[in-house]
Structures are given as C-alpha cells and as structure tokens.
Amino acid sequence: MNNAPNPSSKAARVETYKRILRDILDQRPSGTRQRLATALGKNRSFVSHISSPAYPVPIPAPHLEIIFEICHFSQAEKSTFLDAFTRAHPNRLKSVRGGPSLRSLKLDVVDFGDAAKNREFDELVRETARRLARLIRHGE
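User: That's the sequence. What structure does it adopt?
Assistant: Structure tokens below.
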C-alpha cells in the first residue's frame, strides 16, 4: 500500500484556491492585476501565472497578505481562500504566520479631485510602506 500523497489530488487542491483568486481578480476593476504585480515586485505575467488554475505552481505564501490587500478580499473571501490554500499546503502558512503581522494605518491625505491620481498616490504610499517594512525586516 502506497501512502504517498496523490499528485493529482494536490494539483486539484491548488486549482481550487487559484480559481478563487482568478474569480476575485475578474470581479475587480481594470488595472488590478498590474497594481498587484507592482506591489509584489513582479511583472504582470507572474500574476497571470499564479491566478491560473492551469498552472500547478503554488502561490508563494509570503505574497498572500499583499494579494488580500490589493484585491480587496472580503473577510468571507479571505477565509474561503485560506481554507483552500491550507488544504493544498498544510504547513506553508505556519512559517509565514510566525513572522511579523500586518496592521492598518489610516492616514488623511490630500484629495487630488481625480480618481486616477488618488489611486496612484495611494498605491505609492502603500508601496513605500511595504518597502520600508522589508528593509527593516532584512536589517534585523
């Protein structure tokens, strides 16, 4: 009797959470995939790759919080996604959750009176905060 995990069932579990991400991305405004790629420090094809159920390559666990933030996952969507991700990769979140957690910071900033300029400014502030956090983490 072989107790090794069935590769096809693992692939099916990976497909499940990738399908959730793809469906959420499809519901978001145009440009979300590019904003996500920028936030992850990757190119847009990487986002297409990690959100395609056709590719069995897993989504790197350290990217999850950024994905949740940029894609504006609801609490229910996040819970469903994390359940599927944990079924596909039972031990992968433990190492990520052991690191520093994220917190929200509310800032009052200028309103440029233009939705595109406001989004660009907001993303610049978010990306700066993420980069500063990475610098601090790598310096410890």
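The helical segments are 7-27, 32-40, 44-50, 64-70, 75-88, 92-97, 115-139.
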